[in-house]
Automatic annotation (TrEMBL):
Cited InterPro entries: Aliph_Amidase/BUP (IPR050345), C-N_Hydrolase (IPR003010), C-N_Hydrolase_sf (IPR036526)
Domain of life: Eukaryota
EC number: 3.5.1.6
Reactions listed under catalytic activity: 3-(carbamoylamino)propanoate + H2O + 2 H(+) = beta-alanine + NH4(+) + CO2; 3-(carbamoylamino)-2-methylpropanoate + H2O + 2 H(+) = (R)-3-amino-2-methylpropanoate + NH4(+) + CO2
Record key words, sorted: Hydrolase
Functional pathway: Amino-acid biosynthesis; beta-alanine biosynthesis
Any one GO biological process: beta-alanine biosynthetic process via 3-ureidopropionate
Protein known as: Beta-ureidopropionase
Length: 322
């Protein structure tokens, strides 16, 4: 009996434009120019909400452990990329989600991996900092920033309620759950991940999250192979190397009814645009009754005990075992 609540949403995946040996400002401005072209293309298709990839303004240099890359960090509220996207958001009547390397100048210039949510009037609605930081393979991100402190916020926009589960957070089901409990209708997952590490998992995790939590998911991965000036080593015993591996793109949308789109290219820049009726979130919850049958109190009790020092697993041992 409700009117349709159709939203046109978009994902952007892109390569870096210049080699990593170029001056940093030139690298950043080249990426911004490329992304502007993609946002303008989305606007020509009347997109309402658009999300960019993780740390979109820079190479994903967190494998190198070199601190010069901190120069790409900027204020979430006043930084160059935010002001740039504010103009585009207002021009195109579009909500834009901008994942950047944030510099918090009010707290000792600490860095964060942050998504800035910019409203369709060009206003900054808010920001979310990455909840889970990887320590696997070449992902040396805790050299630059630590786990976020913003909880699991949902941003109510004119087009719908959106949240941002940044990259490695997709491996943590409770992170997905928390965005759902806070009322998200669309959760974007801006990422930077490579084929040797995660590609078999990529088509599964976002789709499963959409089904389990009753919302739409937009999974975004950058694309291309980024080669750095100096070789680096990893914690997995591999010989030193100068690239992270291939960022395999393959961005896609998933729906709470288990449907999903095809993926974008593994090798090329891409813009994916979909129409989604947000009424489907409630319809699927009505059909399957997942929130009604979830028994949150039961699992809250388990988790409350689990974080205690005196926790003992609930194991019933076969009395015939030695």
């Amino acid at each position: 009996m409700r009117e349709p609540h159709v939203v046109r949403a978009a994902l952007v995946q892109n390569k870096i434009v210049l080699p990593t040996t170029y001056p940093f400002l030139e690298q950043k401005r080249a990426i911004m120019s490329r992304v502007e072209t993609l946002i303008d293309a989305a606007a020509s298709a009347s997109v309402n909400i658009l999300c960019l990839q993780e740390a979109w303004t820079m190479p994903f240099a967190f494998c190198t452990r070199e601190k010069t890359w901190c120069e790409f960090a900027e204020s979430a509220e006043e930084g160059e990329s935010t002001k740039f996207l504010q103009g585009l958001a207002k021009k195109h009547n579009m909500v834009i989600i901008s994942p950047i390397l944030e510099r918090d100048e009010n707290h000792g210039n600490i860095l964060w991996n942050t998504a800035v949510v910019i409203g369709n009037h060009g206003n900054v609605i808010g920001k979310h900092r990455k909840n889970h930081i990887p320590r696997v393979g070449d992902f040396n991100e805790s050299t630059y920033y630590m786990e976020g402190n913003t909880g699991n916020p949902v941003f109510e926009t004119v087009f719908g309620k959106v949240a941002v589960n940044i990259c490695y957070g997709r491996h943590h089901p409770l992170n997905w759950l928390a965005f759902g409990l806070n009322g998200a209708e669309i959760v974007f997952n801006p990422s930077a991940t490579v084929g040797d590490l995660s590609e078999p998992m990529w088509p599964i995790e976002a789709r499963n999250a959409a089904i389990a939590n009753g919302y739409f998911v937009g999974a975004i991965n950058r694309v291309g192979t980024e080669v750095f000036p100096r070789p680096f080593t990893s914690g997995d015993g591999k010989p030193e190397h100068a690239d992270f591996g291939h960022f395999y793109g393959s961005s896609y949308f998933s729906s709470p009814d288990a449907s999903c789109t095809p993926c974008l290219s593994r090798c090329q820049d891409g813009l994916m645009i979909v129409d989604m009726d947000l009424n489907l979130c409630r319809q699927v919850k009505d059909k399957w009754g997942f929130p009604m049958t979830a028994r949150y109190d039961k699992y809250a009790h388990l988790l409350k005990n689990y974080v205690r020092e005196d926790f003992k697993p609930q194991i019933i041992k076969d009395p015939l075992l030695p």
